[in-house]
Amino acid sequence: MDIRLNKFLSQQGAASRRKADVLIQERRVAVNGRVVEDLGVKIDPSRDRVTVDGRAVASGCDFVTIALNKPAGILVTLDDPFGRPAVRDLVAGLPGNIRPVGRLDKDSRGLLLLTNDGELAFRLTHPRYEVPKTYIVSVRGEVTAAEAARLEKGIYLDGRKTAPAKVAVLEAHSARSVVRVEIHEGRKHEVREMFAAFGHDVAGLERVAFAGVKLERLAARQWRVLKKSEVRDLRRRVGLA
Fold first, then answer.
1. Among 14-28, 46-60, 108-122, 151-165, which stretch is predicted with the lowest mean pLDDT?
2. pLDDT beyond 70 at 105
């Protein structure tokens, strides 16, 4: 069955769909030895040979998806030009095309998914699929019930209203509060900015669940391969067979 070239590159973990289009425009992708210039070109993965920068992109590769407990201070990148600590240092030995799914701030910790299934990664981070992410947040000051209610309904950040969230105040004291927050948007620093809007600085932020996968007892810096049932649930959640 023929599929678009950019989708094939994404499915094989060679690049995101957007990055695949860039690679094609830069004339870095070839099919059966001929450089591709048309973004809409389709291929037959069972017959056509695809290369990027001269290196073959295998079809039907074994996909791997892992859960990593990222410590604070680690960048979510595989290629930091300044040599700072990054997740690549924690996943040595895994397939070279495995990549983080979405982002997690350098100062945040907790659950990070990584996969070489490009289509799965794309859908897990696309707003259309409303994939839930759950955080335990420690903030300075007392988070009131009224503030939690407003966060649940959505507030305006930089002129855009946040989507409704699930907010539960676990502890509330004059100096410090602990709150569980579930969101399904991917806006940068969203959770931190939500609390900053009420004058609460975030002292600690840990992601404990993503798309139904839970952090549970995974120790900091450790990772595990997801069970087949977990991957199947992830794919179902975003409409993949």
1. 46-60
2. yes
d(CA 70, CA 87): 7
Cite the active site residues.
105
Distance in angstroms (rounded) separating the CA atoms of residues 213 and 234: 8
Identify the structural domains of the chain with CATH numbers, from first to last: 3-56 (3.10.290.10), 65-128+217-237 (3.30.70.580), 132-210 (3.30.70.1560)
| Token pair belonging to 119 | 């289509």
One-letter amino acid of 197: A
Dig out the tokens for 144 from the structure. 């009131």
Q: Which residues pair with 183 in a beta bridge?
A: 133
Mean predicted lDDT score pLDDT of the chain: 91
pTM for the whole structure:
0.79
156-157 and 109-115 beta bridge pairing: unpaired
* Token couple for 192: 């931190």
DSSP 104-172: --TT-EEEEEEES-HHHHHHHH-GGG---EEEEEEEESPPPHHHHHHHHH--EETTEEPPP-EEEEEEE
Q: Report the distance separating Cα 108 and Cα 136, nearest Å.
A: 10
